[in-house]
Amino acid sequence: MKLAMTYSYLKQDLDQIEKALDKTIQAKHPVLRDASQQLLQAGGKRLRPVFVLLAAKFGHYDIERMKTIAVSMELIHMASLVHDDVIDESELRRGEPTVKSKWDNRVAMYTGDYIFARSLEYLTSLEKPRAHKQLSETIVELCIGEVEQIRDKYVVNQNVRNYLRRIKRKTALLISSSCRLGAIAAEVPEPYEKALYRYGYHIGMSYQIIDDILDFTATEKELGKPAGSDLLQGNLTLPVFYAMEDPLFRTELKTLFDDPSRLTNRDIRPFIDRIKASGAIERSYDLSEKYLLKAYQSLDELPDIKAKQTLKDIAKYIGKRKS
Amino acid sequence: MITLKTSNLPLGELKEAIEKKIQHSYLEKYIQKPVIDEDKLYILSSIVKNTSYSETKKKNYIITVMLVQIALDTHDLVAKHEEKNETDQTKKQRQLTVLAGDYFSGLYYYFLSQLDDIAMIHTLASAIKEINELKMTVYYKEFESIEEFMDALKQIESLLIRRVAEFFERSAVNEFTGNWLLTRKLIKEKHSYLQQEHSPVFDLLTKGPAHNVHYNQIVNTVEQFIQLSFSRVEETVSQLPVHFQSLKTYTNKIIYDYLGNNSQIVEEG
């Protein structure tokens, strides 16, 4: 089953969000407008808006109000992607040229800043200081997480805890904030709001772990980039940490990382094979599963409405996804 | 460093507070220390000082607006393209410059949300949106004349402060702010060009399609604009309301010093 099928009943509302997204980034300058449109059309699963809507279903659901949050959360995500492509020198995103490759780094910087500003400008129609506190903390954490990711590149001497903290900031916080902001805006009772936040956090962790596993196990066609790209870029992910429990692997990886500028895909390939043979992939799936179970447990605290089943289905999908 | 005081907000203390807010040990190791624009800081302090807010809140307003300015300036430092065979150091610098700008930008939102100041968040976000639109216009050199280019530059330099002044109902300072910040920008760019033979503004003027000023003429052309801008400053500073007295003193001192050091150019101009 496709992910979108699990929340097909939200389609009308999601269509409204799509239209609002399009309207919000109609910049006056043609290049700024085209670059923003390019990002929007590159699509994505629109997971954050979905989480906003589903969380709001546990309170006073009002699509106009929810639209504001959902659009803002997606715009923040988009703004971070356009800047990430400058950081990673990415030429393609979901098969389409990135803003930085179609125009240049500077256009990508201005586009990201413009979209981020639009998202906050749009969100200020929500007169809920607590929501702004929550989101602003998340954004700062997200930036710190990205700085730490660069700091930790090619550094073998770190542990799983570093990794978990990094993915919490990189992925889990924005998803859990989407859930919480949806809940705050819909005035969901506080215990439910907390449960939704925890659900978002656990599902975000699981999602990122699976993303990191797929970097080793999926095909180049499925990934849209060569397998092992994370390792090539010096990003140590969960399977690598498990494989590094073998001292020989750790030492050899350290030697490989001695001169990162000379690294090629060919150098990485034997390491990918060793990671796969070490049982690290299976162990990573196990940890992802543990996070999913915690996500399910968080849902136990919520009333039985349709949205709860959808949140379960999304968790199930994330656990099984192959691309 | 200017030692003049605005209300109970000495500039040195404000600068220190801003530096403290943007402190990040890893970023500091790799990227250049952000420059805190003293002119903007001074104008901002003059705008905020006569409001009825508490001293703490005034200070927080000034710090957050300056954080926005620093975030925007930081992203201007990101190179257009990656260099061929760039070193790991250059690459890391670029990556961290992108992230530093994002981080400073996140901080302004964070501090204002701590103050529950949603209206100010809206004001600053709108200004950032407008500034990025303007930056694209300048980046693509879409001007019919040098005057048009100078006007866009003036907008970019002053828009953030002008929007804040409107927020505090102090827009009487706006005309002056635009002229003053343009003058100061041109002086800095001229200095940088004469010292290092490089200035982004001079590049735009010499390589712009609609107004490519000849290389030999560029310094004189810019100096003429500085003089023109100075006379506008003198005109607008005299019209400032009385509570901007310290700003008047500050401006007049700088004008006097500049003209004293550049008397030959003025006579020739």
Automatic annotation (TrEMBL), chain A:
Name of a matching Pfam family: polyprenyl_synt
Domain of life: Bacteria
Gene3D superfamilies per record: Farnesyl Diphosphate Synthase
Family: Belongs to the FPP/GGPP synthase family.
Protein name, per record: Heptaprenyl diphosphate synthase component II
Cofactor: Mg(2+)
SUPFAM superfamilies: Terpenoid synthases
Keywords: Magnesium, Metal-binding, Transferase
Coiled coil spans: none
Protein's organism: Sediminibacillus dalangtanensis
InterPro entries linked to this entry: GerC3_HepT, Isoprenoid_synthase_dom_sf, Polyprenyl_synt, Polyprenyl_synt_CS
TrEMBL record, chain B:
InterPro entries per record: HEPPP_synth_su1
Pfam families, A to Z: HEPPP_synt_1
Domain of life of the organism encoding this protein: Bacteria
The name this protein goes by in its record: Heptaprenyl diphosphate synthase
Species: Sediminibacillus dalangtanensis
